Each structure stands twice: as C-alpha cells, then as structure tokens.
Amino acid sequence: MDREYKKEQFETLKIKSSVAKKFRRFSRAISKSQSVSLLLMIEFFEEHGISPAESMGPKMQTLEHLIKKRINGVIAILKDIEKGQTKPTVAMLQSLFEETAPKKQPLILERKFVEKKKEVRLPAGEAGFQEKRNPNNEL
Fold first, then answer.
1. InterPro entries, per this entry (predicted)?
2. Contact 41, 34 (CB under 8 A)
C-alpha cells in the first residue's frame, strides 16, 4: 500500500470472484496495490474523457499508422502550396523590390555656343581675288 493512503480505512466492494481474480492479476502486473490500481484506472478515464463501455477502435499501432499517413498528406499539401503559390509570389516580390542600378543616361547639359570665325566677304560689286592653295605645293 502506498504511504499516502496508509491511514485511510478499507471499504468493501461487492464484485464477482472471476472479476476480482482478474483485477488482482492486473494489479500485480503493474506493481501497484489494488487501491492504487483502481485509482489509476479511474483517473485515466476521467482525464481522457472516455467511458469503459466505449470501444477504443483499432489498436494503437493502427492509429499511429493512420496519423502518420494523414501527417504525410498534410506535408504534401503544404509542399504543393509552397511550390505553386509561395515561391512564385516571393520571386515576383523580390523582382519588384530588387535594387538594380539605374540605366545611365547622359545628362542634359546646356550647350555652350562657340563663336565661329566670321568669313570676310567683300561687299557685292567689288572684285576680289583669292588664291587657291595647292595641298601638295605649299608656299
């Protein structure tokens, strides 16, 4: 018996002898006293919100297999969403916000007017003579 329940009194429960033998075997198997074994069972049912009359369905291994299968399905859906929606959207946003060097365009500057040498022309009616220079025969 556990120390915390040492000072408590025993109560009698009326159960069938076959059930009592089965319960005693179960109590020895989990290495607890019969009182603590019964208390653990009651707390388990209360904590998990199940009734002993309800069926737990398939064994735990089958449930584990089903849960893993569903998790793998969720992972596949998330990967598909990532490939089809998230990555393209991120790529588009990055291309919009990506800093690229602006194209260099020549600056528009004021043109400076250079004065050309004015040709000297004689007024109309006056004769003028100009020699043509020969590029081969320089004077």
1. BfmA-like_N
2. no
